[in-house]
Hints:
By secondary structure, the chain is α/β, with parallel strands linked by helices. 31% of the residues lie in helices and 15% in strands.
Amino acid sequence: MELEFQWPDAPFNIVLVEPSIPPNTGNISRLCAATGTALHLIEPLGFDLSEKQLRRAGLDYWDSVNLTVYPDFDTFLEKNPSDRKFFFSTAGSRNFQEAAFQPNDYFIFGNETFGLPDEMLAAHSESILNIPIKLDCVRSLNLSNCAAIVLYEALRQINR
Length: 160
């Protein structure tokens, strides 16, 4: 049984800047395969794309992922100059639920250990969003959870 759902004509995009934990990227690749979302990886990666942990987390869905790898963030921007980009950081002061997402938006997440570089956040300060966390003892959420939370909020918005 297939649920009634409106999928966007232009897919959303998840961008991982220098990801370092293979299972997170694998889980996100599976999310992308399930939703028709494009996955963009910005090097350097903290793993090889053929790594067993990465492949295991993504299961046998890798062939269904629209994957693009870029040598650096500047190359990514050159190849995707005019599309809307949202940067996710615990440093953001705007709740991600306040954003009005549209098909083909780019959701940009940083490395699991240090997040997005300060200079990148400074250059895109008007587009930084945060996922609220209630307890101060929790610094951040898992990267693959963040990607799923944001993507499904965007899909919910276009299904209103």
